[in-house]
Amino acid sequence: MPLVCANDSIAISAIHALTSLGIRVPEDVSVTGFDDIDDVLRVTPALTTVHVDKEAMGSRAVDMLLRRVEAPDAKREKLLLSGDVVFRDSVAQVQSR
Asked: Which residue range or ranges hold the Transcriptional regulator LacI/GalR-like sensor domain (predicted)?
């Protein structure tokens, strides 16, 4: 069973909670996060996550904020940034059928 978390901090907490309940990660539950923070390597098993360019994301957010300050009634836009999955030990390998 997979557990996909909104960020790495939640995923790390989930791993700790699952482990305390006797649920094995990744044997019983695969866990993934999002952010690729430094702590993902300090948890056991190491967390699979999505790496995003935080500097680019912050820069784009500031640009969007400044545009909204200059033109508060302008149409809002959505931002799409790419990310890369970083596979580590918290996800079980998929068995082919």
From this structure: 3-91
The per-residue pLDDT for 10 is 98
Task: Enumerate the β-bridge partners of residue 50.
Answer: 85
- Cα gap 51→65, rounded to integer Å: 23
Nearest C-alpha neighbor of 87 from the set 56, 50, 62: 50
For the chain, give the mean pLDDT.
Answer: 92
Residue 39: alpha-carbon gap to chain centroid: 12
Any residues with CB less than 8 A from the CB of 32 and at least 6 apart, and which? 2, 3, 4, 5, 11, 47, 48, 49, 50, 90, 91
Q: What is the structure's pLDDT at 62?
A: 93
List, in sequence order, the alpha helices (H) in 8-53.
8-20
Rounded to two decimals, the pTM is 0.80
Q: Would you say 81 and 53 are in contact if contact means Cβ atoms under 8 Å apart? A: yes
How far apart (Å, rounded) are the C-alpha atoms in residues 81 and 63?
Answer: 14
